[in-house]
Amino acid sequence: MEKTMDIFQDEFGIIEYKGVPVVGSRKVAEIFEKDHKHVLDSIRKITEPKSGLSEKFNFINFKEITYKDSTGRKLPEYLLTRDGFTLLAMSFTGKKAMQFKEAYINRFNQMESFIKSLSIAKLEYPELTDAIMALHDKPMQYHFSNEADMINRIVLGIDAKKYRELHGVPDGKSIRPYLKLEEINLILKLQRMDIGLCITTPDYEKRKQILTDYYNRLQLVKLSA
């Protein structure tokens, strides 16, 4: 099972589409070892008016697109959200299919968390986000949250999650508008340094020490001014 899960991490086929994780129906057919035509038939049965699903649900969770085959012909395909995939996969039975479904749903959850973290990182750390992406071959959710938390802890003494709890900031919202100007300026200075460190110093603990020392020097300069 470990080998299978390793393959999943590389070949799930889940991508971001307009800020939402989706998977193509061709990839679902491939993973579940089904004919794509039969998968399309199942999707069309699910989305037909008499199925009972609302047009809004179908519009959100089943996006019809086209792709070109080896001959250049345009053929139909669907992009499925997690909810769309879940409905489709209900009809897939057997032990192997159940393992695939569990793994897919877990991967959808991971991808949703990743997209959310990346969105927040772009809001709070726009210049740093690209550097973090370049630092890791396969950027994960925690790569962004770890870097953000490191800078927040150095400047604020706590991470963003704790800051939200203490100051009543809604979950998922940027804490930037709630910070003092001095705190924002210090965070920006550490961000700028961290952009270069992501290139020159891949080791997280070393970056943390360098940034902490830099912050302490800034505080000493402030005290002596």
Textual characterization of the structure:
This protein is of the alpha+beta class and 225 residues long. The chain contains 11 helices and 4 strands; from the N terminus they run αββαααββααααααα. The chain has a 4-stranded antiparallel beta sheet.
Question: What topology emerges from the helices and strands here?
Answer:
Layout (H helix, E strand, L loop, with lengths): L1 H10 L2 E4 L2 E5 H7 L4 H12 L7 H7 E7 L5 E7 L1 H8 L5 H30 L1 H10 L5 H16 L3 H8 L13 H20 L3 H21 L1
Antiparallel strand pairs: 1-2, 2-4, 3-4
Task: Give the tags.
225 residues; alpha+beta; 2 domains; 11 helices; 4 strands; elongated; disordered N terminus
Number of domain units: 2
Element order: H for helix, E for strand = HEEHHHEEHHHHHHH
Q: pLDDT under 50 segments (min length 5)?
A: 1-10
| Rounded mean pLDDT score | 84
Q: How many helical elements?
A: 11
Taking strands numbered 1, 2, ... along the chain, how are they ordered across the largest sheet?
Answer: 1-2-4-3
Tell me the β content.
Answer: 5-15%
* Terminal-residue CA separation: 62 Å
Helix percentage range: 55-70%
- Shape descriptor reads elongated
Identify the quaternary structure here. Answer: single chain
Class inferred from helices and paired strands = alpha+beta
The major pleated sheet works out as: 4 strands, antiparallel
Based on CA atoms alone, the radius of gyration comes out at: 23 Å
Strand count: 4
